[in-house]
Amino acid sequence: MPRVSQKKPLLRVAKAEVPPGGALVFRKSRVAIVREGDNIYALSIVCTHLGCSVNVTPKELICPCHGSIFGRGGEVFKGPADRPLEQLTVEERGEFIVVLS
Length: 101
Ligand code: FES
Prior knowledge:
Number of domains: 1
Distance between the termini: 23 Å
Number of helices: 0
Oligomer: single chain
Bound molecules: FE2/S2 (inorganic) cluster
CATH superfamily: Rieske [2Fe-2S] iron-sulphur domain
């Protein structure tokens, strides 16, 4: 029996809207859609320390609350956070990217 995904669409964005080497940030949904080369992926912007929303800069993601710094792949560069930002599932549907939650 095929396995059915329980995840639901959270955001739908045209791929062309995601700037090369940049990101689109959806603060209400607390998601950043990032483009690195041909790769487009989605990160939760919820800091893994105590849950503040991180700010996305061209080089890194910075938490304004206690100064944690994450790489554009979500990896921890500087604590106090000790876990990476959550990578969200994305699906390509034609010219669109759909972020699932
Ligand atoms: S909530 Fe982000 S560093 Fe504390």
